[in-house]
Write a structure and sequence with these properties.
The structure holds two protein chains of two kinds. By secondary structure, chain A is mainly beta. Chain A has one helix at about 1-15; strands at about 25, 35, 45-50, 55-65, 70-80, 85-90, 95-105, 105-120, 130-140, 150-155, 170, 175, 180-190, 200-205, 215-220, 225-235, 240-250, 250-265, 270-275, 280-290, 295-305, 315-320, 330-335, 355-360, 365-375, 385-390, 395-400, 405-415, 420-430, 430-440. Chain A is globular and about 100 Å long. The relative contact order of chain A is 0.11. Chain B contains six helices and eleven strands. Classes of the chains: A mainly beta, B alpha+beta.
C-alpha cells in the first residue's frame, strides 16, 4: 500500500510540475517570428520603422465616441523579436499616413507623424464641405508624448461667395534630410464647387530641426489627379518620390507612372515617366533607395493592362540616382505565373496581384511585398501576402505567398541589421482587422 | 414419426458419447488396478492403447491420470528416459498440472521438479484511457498580452500486451516480469489562449480567446520491468518502471475556435500541425494482477513522462491557416500522460526438462 501511495504521489507531482502555462516557459531561442497586435476595435497598419532595439509600428483605429466615431492613430514599439514594449500610444483625430523616428546615434528622440485630420459636418450647404480634410503633423518625444501643438496644413480662409468650398489637404510620406530637417509630401484639392472631381495636386513642405514649418511648395505639374507612393527621399538637396497620374481626372482606373525629382524648394529637374503613351493602370506604391546610393532606387506597384481591377501584376523597376527610370529594368510578377516562369509578361495576369512596399537588401537586391488574390488554384483565402526577393536587376531570387482565410495586406517592409526581412501589415478576419509584424530570415523562412 | 426419429438420433449420439467416456474411464480404472497390483510391465501397452484409441478418445483429466500412471511405471521400471518423455507429455496435456506432495510418491515429485512447469510468457489485450498534458519547454507565441494554458483531455488506448516472467537465481516466485505492449494511443489535450485587446470606449477590457483541442494518434510500445512486491495470490500488486517509444501516425490535429468580445467569432477550424514522428517517454506504473481462467486480469495506473520534444521550433509557424487564421504558433513541448488500463493476459507454457536439474 505504501508503494502504491508513493507511486501516486510521484505521478501527481510530475503532472503538477509539468509546465502547462505557455507564458511560464522560456521563449524559444529564435530570431524569426510572426506576431499579431489586436486593439479593442479594428486596427489597420500604416507603416513600420526601425528604431534602436526593435521596431515602431504605426496604425489607425476608428473608435466609437459619444454616438459618433473618432479616428485614432496608434503607435507602438516592439523589441527585436516582436514583443510589444509598453502600451499602445493613441492620438485622437488623426489618420496617420507615415512617420519617421528621430534617432540620434543609438538614441531614440521621438517621432514625426503625418496624417489627415478630418472634420465631418453634415449640416452644411455644400456637399464638398461635409468632410474637410487637413494635413496634420505630430511631433512626439521619446516618451511618445506630443511635444508641441500639432501643425495643420489647412484652409484658413473663411467661406464666402468667392470661396464656397474649403480646400482639402491630405498627408503623405515624410522623411528627414541629411541635416535633420523634415520634408513632407502631400496632396490638396482646391476649394471649388465640384471639388469631388477636382484634380488632387501635389505639395511639399519642410520642417526645421525644431519642427517649425519652414517652406511650402505646390507642384501643379499637370492638372490631373496624383496618387503618391508611400515614400519620399531627400539627398543632396534633391527630393524624389514616385507618383501615378490618372489619365482621366478623378478616375483612378487608368494611369501612368512618373518620378518627380525636384530641387528642394524649387522646380522639378527631372520628371521621368512610363506608360504615358498607352492605356493601363500603372500605380506605384513605394520607392526606396538601393543599398548603394549609386544604384538609385527601386519602385514597386501594381500594373494592369485591363483597368477593371480584376487582374494585375506586381511591377518592379529601377530608377537612376538622377530620377530617370532605367529603360528595360521593369519586371512583372504574377501570383500564379511567376511560380512557373522566371520572366512574366507584363500583360499576362491570371489574378489580381498588387505591389505595396519595397526595401533594399544589403546584398544589392530588393524585397517586394504585395498581395495576391486567392483563386481555387492558389492561396489560403482572401488576399494573401505575396513576397518576392529580387536581385539588383530584378530577377527572382525567391518568391513566396503566405496568409490565412482572411485578407493579409502589407503596409511596409524593411531589412533588419542582420539581413532578416521585416514585414508589417493588416490581417482582416471576419471584418475585424489586426496589425501583424513578421520577421523572416533573408531566405524568407520563418523557421529559425 | 419425425419426432421419433429425432429422439432416436439423440439417444444414439448420447449413447455413443457415453460409450467413449465410459471406455476411457474403464481404461483408467483398469490401469490403476494393474498398477496397484504391481503388474507394471502390462501397463505400457494398456495405457498407450487407451491414449491412442480413436474410438474411445480420452478427455484431458483421463489422459493426465493415464500419463501419471505411465510416468510412475517408468520410474519404477527404472526407465528414466521414458519417464521424462511421459512427464513432458503429461505437462503438455495439462499446463496447470500440480503435484500433491502429501500423496504423490517422492520419486514422482522429484521428477516433476526437474521440469519447467511455469508459464514462459503471457499475451493478451489491453484497453484503457489516458489524460495527456503538454509540458512546455519553450514558448512561441503569435500574440502579445496572452495568458495561455494547456489542459488535459481524455484519450483512449488499446492494443496487445505481453508479459515475460523472469526468475532470478533461486527465488521461488517470479517477482520480476518484463512487460511490453503495442498500443494504439490517442493523446488529446486542450488549449486556451486569452489575449487582452485593451479597453473599449467604456473602459471595459476586451479579450480574444482561442479554444482548441489537439488530437494525436500514436502507435506506442511501452516496455517496463514489473516488480511483484507482495506475493498475494489474489491481487499480486506490482510497481513498474520503464520507457515507451511512440510513433506518430499522421500529424497532430488542432480543432480550434476563436471568440472575440464585441466582434464576430471565427468559425471552428480544424488543421494539421507538424509533430515529431518519434516520442520517447519514461514511465512508472503500479497495478494488480488477479488470476482468472488461464491467465490474469491486470489493472494498471501508468504515468508516462515525455522525454523528447514532439514539436519543433522550426515548424512553429508552418501551418499558415493556424497562424494567419487563428493567431496560433506552436510552442515547443513534450507530452506526458497518466493512463488507467485494464488487460487480460493468457499464460503460455512450454514445459521442458531443465538441464541443470537431475
Amino acid at each position: 500500500m505504501k508503494k502504491i501511495t508513493t507511486f501516486i504521489l510521484i505521478a501527481t507531482a510530475f503532472l503538477l510540475t509539468t509546465c502547462k502555462n505557455l507564458d511560464n516557459a522560456d521563449p524559444a531561442p529564435r530570431n524569426t517570428f510572426l506576431k499579431f497586435y489586436e486593439g479593442p476595435y479594428s486596427m489597420t497598419a500604416a507603416a513600420i520603422e526601425k528604431i534602436p532595439g526593435g521596431f515602431a509600428v504605426l496604425a489607425n483605429m476608428v473608435s466609437p465616441s459619444n454616438n459618433s466615431t473618432i479616428n485614432q492613430t496608434i503607435l507602438f514599439e516592439t523589441d527585436e523579436i516582436g514583443i510589444r514594449i509598453g502600451d499602445y500610444h493613441k492620438y485622437d483625430n488623426i489618420t496617420a499616413k507615415s512617420f519617421k523616428p528621430l534617432i540620434n546615434g543609438e538614441t531614440l528622440n521621438g517621432f514625426i507623424i503625418v496624417g489627415d485630420s478630418i472634420i465631418i459636418n453634415p449640416n452644411v450647404d455644400q456637399a464638398a464641405n461635409v468632410s474637410i480634410s487637413s494635413m496634420a503633423v505630430l511631433v512626439l518625444n521619446d516618451d511618445f508624448a506630443e511635444t508641441r501643438d500639432r501643425l495643420y496644413i489647412t484652409d484658413k480662409q473663411d467661406l464666402s461667395i468667392n470661396h464656397p468650398v474649403k480646400d482639402d489637404y491630405f498627408g503623405g510620406p515624410v522623411n528627414l534630410t541629411e541635416n535633420g530637417e523634415a520634408i513632407v509630401l502631400g496632396t490638396f484639392k482646391r476649394g471649388i464647387v465640384n471639388q469631388q472631381n477636382a484634380p488632387e495636386e501635389q505639395m511639399l513642405f519642410g520642417l526645421t530641426q525644431s519642427r517649425d514649418s519652414s517652406w511650402f511648395k505646390t507642384y501643379p505639374l499637370l492638372a490631373n489627379t496624383y496618387s503618391n507612393a508611400k515614400s519620399i527621399h531627400a539627398s543632396d538637396g534633391n527630393i524624389i518620390w514616385a507618383t501615378a497620374i490618372a489619365d482621366v481626372q478623378g478616375d483612378f482606373t487608368s494611369s501612368y507612372l512618373a518620378i518627380p525629382f525636384v530641387q528642394e524648394q524649387s522646380v522639378p529637374i527631372n520628371f521621368s515617366q512610363a506608360g504615358e503613351t498607352s492605356t493601363q493602370l500603372f500605380l506605384p506604391s513605394d520607392i526606396q533607395p538601393a543599398s548603394s546610393p549609386a544604384f538609385g532606387y527601386g519602385v514597386v506597384g501594381t500594373y494592369s493592362q485591363i483597368t477593371d481591377g480584376s487582374k494585375g501584376n506586381i511591377f518592379f523597376l529601377r530608377v537612376a540616382a538622377n530620377g530617370t527610370i532605367i529603360p528595360g529594368s521593369d519586371r512583372y510578377f504574377d501570383g500564379i505565373g511567376s511560380f512557373n516562369t522566371a520572366t512574366q509578361n507584363k500583360d499576362n495576369s491570371e489574378i489580381l496581384d498588387e505591389g505595396k512596399a519595397i526595401t533594399a537588401t544589403s546584398d544589392g537586391g530588393f524585397v517586394l511585398v504585395g498581395t495576391m488574390t486567392t483563386t481555387p488554384q492558389k492561396g489560403n483565402g482572401g488576399k494573401d501576402l505575396f513576397i518576392i526577393k529580387v536581385n539588383a536587376i530584378g530577377d527572382i531570387v525567391w518568391i513566396k505567398t503566405m496568409g490565412g482565410t482572411g485578407d493579409d495586406d502589407p503596409a511596409g517592409v524593411t531589412e533588419a541589421s542582420n539581413g532578416d526581412i521585416i514585414v508589417c501589415g493588416t490581417n482582416t478576419l471576419s471584418g475585424y482587422a489586426s496589425v501583424f509584424l513578421m520577421r523572416m530570415d533573408k531566405n524568407g523562412e520563418l523557421t529559425n | 414419426m419425425k419426432k421419433f426419429y429425432l429422439i432416436l438420433i439423440f439417444v444414439a449420439l448420447a449413447w455413443g458419447a457415453s460409450a467413449q467416456t465410459t471406455s476411457c474411464a474403464q481404461s483408467v480404472r483398469l490401469a490403476q488396478s494393474v498398477y496397484d497390483q504391481g503388474r507394471l510391465h502390462e501397463l505400457e501397452d494398456l495405457i498407450n492403447k487407451a491414449l491412442s484409441s480413436t474410438s474411445a478418445a480420452c478427455g484431458q483429466a483421463e489422459q493426465v491420470s493415464l500419463l501419471k500412471l505411465l510416468t510412475l511405471t517408468y520410474i519404477y521400471l527404472e526407465e528414466p528416459g521414458k519417464a521424462d518423455e511421459t512427464m513432458l507429455k503429461l505437462l503438455q496435456t495439462d499446463n496447470y498440472f500440480k503435484i500433491n506432495e502429501a500423496v504423490d510418491p517422492a520419486e514422482f515429485v522429484a521428477l516433476y521438479r526437474t521440469f519447467r512447469t511455469k508459464e514462459i510468457y503471457r499475451i493478451g489485450a489491453a484497453l484503457g484511457v489516458n489524460a495527456s498534458q503538454p509540458n512546455v519547454v519553450n514558448t512561441i507565441s503569435a500574440v502579445n498580452d496572452a495568458s495561455s494554458k494547456y489542459k488535459y483531455a481524455i484519450g483512449i488506448q488499446f492494443g496487445a500486451s505481453a508479459d515475460v516472467p523472469l526468475r532470478l537465481g533461486k527465488i521461488k516466485h517470479y517477482k520480476l516480469t518484463l512487460h511490453g505492449e503495442l498500443l494504439y494511443t490517442q493523446h488529446k489535450f486542450e488549449l486556451e489562449q486569452k489575449v487582452s485587446r485593451g479597453l473599449n470606449a467604456d473602459n471595459v477590457e476586451l479579450f480574444q480567446t482561442l479554444q482548441g483541442v489537439e488530437s494525436q494518434n500514436w502507435l506506442t510500445m511501452p516496455i517496463s520491468l514489473q516488480y511483484n512486491y507482495l506475493q498475494n495470490e489474489k491481487l499480486n500488486p506490482y510497481i513498474a518502471g520503464g520507457f515507451s517509444v511512440g510513433y506518430l501516425m499522421g500529424n497532430g490535429t488542432l480543432k480550434s475556435e476563436r471568440f472575440r468580445d464585441e466582434a464576430a467569432a471565427l468559425p471552428e477550424t480544424s488543421f494539421d500541425l507538424t509533430r515529431e514522428k518519434i516520442n520517447l517517454s519514461a514511465l512508472i506504473a503500479t497495478g494488480i494482477k488477479t488470476k482468472a481462467g488461464g491467465g490474469y486480469v491486470v489493472l494498471e495506473v501508468r504515468y508516462s513522462h515525455g522525454l523528447s520534444r514532439i514539436s519543433s521550433s522550426e515548424t512553429a509557424f508552418e501551418n499558415q491557416q493556424a497562424t494567419w487564421g487563428q493567431y496560433y504558433a506552436d510552442p515547443v513541448f513534450k507530452l506526458s500522460s497518466l493512463a488507467i488500463q485494464g488487460s487480460y493476459i493468457i499464460n503460455m507454457f512450454n514445459p521442458k526438462k531443465l538441464r541443470n536439474r537431475s
